[in-house]
Amino acid sequence: MTADAETRDAKPGADVEIRAEDGRLASGFIESVASAISSNDAARVRELAGDLHESDLGDLIETLEHDDRPKLIELLGKDFDFAALTEIDETVRVQLLEELPPETVAKGMRGLDSDDAVYILEDLDEVDRAKILDQIPALERVALKRSLDYPEDSAGRRMQTEFVAAPQFWTVGHLIDYVADTDELPETFYTIFVVDPAYKLLGSVPLDRLLRARRSKLLSDILEENPRTIRATEDQEDAARTFERYNLVSAAVVDDGGRLVGVLMVDDILDVIEEEADEDLRALGGVTGDEEISDPVFYTARSRIPWLLVNLVTAFFSASVIGLFEGTIEQMVALAVLMPIVASMGGNAGTQTMTVAVRALATHDIGGHNARRLIRRETLVGLFNGVICAVVVACIAGLWFQNAQLGAIIACAMVMNLVCAGLFGILIPLGLERMKFDPAVSSGVFLTTVTDTVGFFSFLGLATWWFGLGGPH
Amino acid sequence: MTADAETRDAKPGADVEIRAEDGRLASGFIESVASAISSNDAARVRELAGDLHESDLGDLIETLEHDDRPKLIELLGKDFDFAALTEIDETVRVQLLEELPPETVAKGMRGLDSDDAVYILEDLDEVDRAKILDQIPALERVALKRSLDYPEDSAGRRMQTEFVAAPQFWTVGHLIDYVADTDELPETFYTIFVVDPAYKLLGSVPLDRLLRARRSKLLSDILEENPRTIRATEDQEDAARTFERYNLVSAAVVDDGGRLVGVLMVDDILDVIEEEADEDLRALGGVTGDEEISDPVFYTARSRIPWLLVNLVTAFFSASVIGLFEGTIEQMVALAVLMPIVASMGGNAGTQTMTVAVRALATHDIGGHNARRLIRRETLVGLFNGVICAVVVACIAGLWFQNAQLGAIIACAMVMNLVCAGLFGILIPLGLERMKFDPAVSSGVFLTTVTDTVGFFSFLGLATWWFGLGGPH
């Protein structure tokens, strides 16, 4: 650790390093907090964890034993920053919120920006949510409820309802004085929004542009017209693409009438992008649902079993293809030894294509203009790599079983299966997308069914035909 | 499309919609541009594409036919925004840069922020890069070369060397006047950095904090001490984690002596996060290397073949396990029909565990404190789901082959394989990470080898033992 990093993490009053070199919370620090909690030493807990950044505090909560979590919050008292709850896994958060008294939660949430408060409230069930909302002053409650009325995963849910807006006839100087004199502005803002009396968005003024302008200028002279806006009902993923595409730091959220209702900040978008990439990745790995690393055994097992059962069905389907050739295998057991090779190589090649296709669909990199080219490319890549693998597999299999004809047959089957793998590796995700299914979730099952079936059928079928063996029953 | 979205995308002078409803470039727009290019109509090209945002322009370049790309840049002339080159695939960018005259590129790059210029230059080979650098004025050239000296994928490569820095004895008013009066400030900035005469970073002042302060205040009174900084040599992925963790919008980049050398912006970090998630996802799907959607067949095939050959080796290894039981299979062909089911279910369950583990390692969610718990959890999940799958598979297989004992044997093998899948699904990524290998890249090969081997061996071995069949040769 360099001197600089040390300075950064050292905290006044605390004698313990917070983070280890790899960026994880240091185990010494965790133990100090845990022991202070178990001895009910509020002063020591506050000294150790009272000034932590919300993100460090969140990590700390996740790391602590289940029973220590509410105790930590209790011991920290008013030093506990409820924003930390936005940084922890949903399972842990929901559990914790159910254990804390609603008054404590309501009081803690009043200091939060509305997007954080909504984030914390949205996963609770109706009853728990109502209990907490009841404790919140009417004005804030209405704002929170309005956000919660937007659909899940919409921009309206992620937006912050605190923002700085000004009329177009204000001067730069007037606005700067207003900002300096007003206490209840949002904690952080990067842009001033210019609105008409009905809050219809007229334009935006980034702070750096404001600073560069003379005090006497009118806002209407320096505003950026038609800034990129996000509709409140828009999916958060689409909003994230807009942020990425146009390198935004914050964006106005407007209702269907073009009225300013909130602002989306880039730090929330970072989380959205990470979440969405995560979802695709998990879906491709057969982990659907919102499983988290902190979930218990039963919950995890239950969320994973549906996928396994679906795969079991397709596995029986492929097995039934092998069953057609029982007579052939009886006469030539070498076929049973070699057949999984053809199937598994098809699966691997197909997965390569599918991974690229699914990701490109997610980032909108495939469209009408290049779909045909990609289908052609993937099929040719399958042919090309099929031939290379075929040569290798033919040599090894031929030598192993001292049978050149067997080598030739497995080579042909390999080429067929890898061409199919490339073709279906792209056609399946494209088809699912067109039918409005999520290609990340279900492409894999269909693809493996194709590559297993084609793999077994082509290899065993060719062998039956060529060697004139038992043949299909 | 709502009225608002229309206003947003409608452009003065252009009579064509730029983006279709799904966010992709509209095909009508692409065709208009292509036909204007083919008829060498510079005025029409400028009218259509002259005012495009760099990101739209980048998408347009990618979508155009290969030969039309340099023509577009030529026809746009000085209206072409070279920042668009940062928005396109590396393959397309490198090709395009090689085709354009170095003087044109050098001239276009002079208008760019240094991070964009470095991004464009870094993928070129030495010779091409030198040719372009030679055309750039000395001062800018030195800054670019310094950035290029930092290791690939380091924060130093991604940082912008233009920033606003001020001494601590300046007042807020002095700084605001300076900003209003100075022309060559960076295009966008969110923070003022406070430095000593040797450019050692003393603190930072976010613009909103600056606006809230009285003009007479000293910067030293309002600066945020010990702001989060990034070391220039730090990996961009670590920098991204810091941005995410502390919700940063920009961060000072310092050298080993704590001197301010640049600033990292959140929009570059968005790209890094997307890239890294993409890399993990592709690696898990067996797509290593930097393959892009625009790559030609041969390049794609070549980049994918190594992974297929590695898998071919492991497939032969599993086949050799089957080979041990040729005698058994000869006597009971049903085993050959059913054995892929056991192996494939192990592969699927193991992949679920591995996916979760690899992603948690990437986001630093697994550490010393929870590794043991996770190993225990995954093994128990394997046991739990193994039992469920075993019951299902036993019933179907027993009925299919009218053999209850066969059903019992496949059930036992299934449980064994799913427990191993869970255990190794987490141990393999953890082990690879500890040995400093990238778990996303190679966990899959090892895991499939384990689940195939255990699947075949347990099922065929149990059957051989129970039915007293041929046994290993």
Automatic annotation (TrEMBL), chains A, B:
Topological relation to the membrane, as annotated: Multi-pass membrane protein
One Gene Ontology CC term in the entry: plasma membrane
Membrane-spanning residues: 305-325, 380-401, 407-432, 444-467
SMART domains from the UniProt entry: CBS (SM00116), MgtE_N (SM00924)
Protein family according to the UniProt entry: Belongs to the SLC41A transporter family.
Main subcellular location: membrane
Domain of life (superkingdom): Bacteria
All residue ranges annotated as the CBS domain in the record: 223-279
Name this polypeptide is given: Magnesium transporter MgtE
Keyword terms of this UniProt record: CBS domain, Cell membrane, Magnesium, Membrane, Metal-binding, Transmembrane, Transmembrane helix, Transport
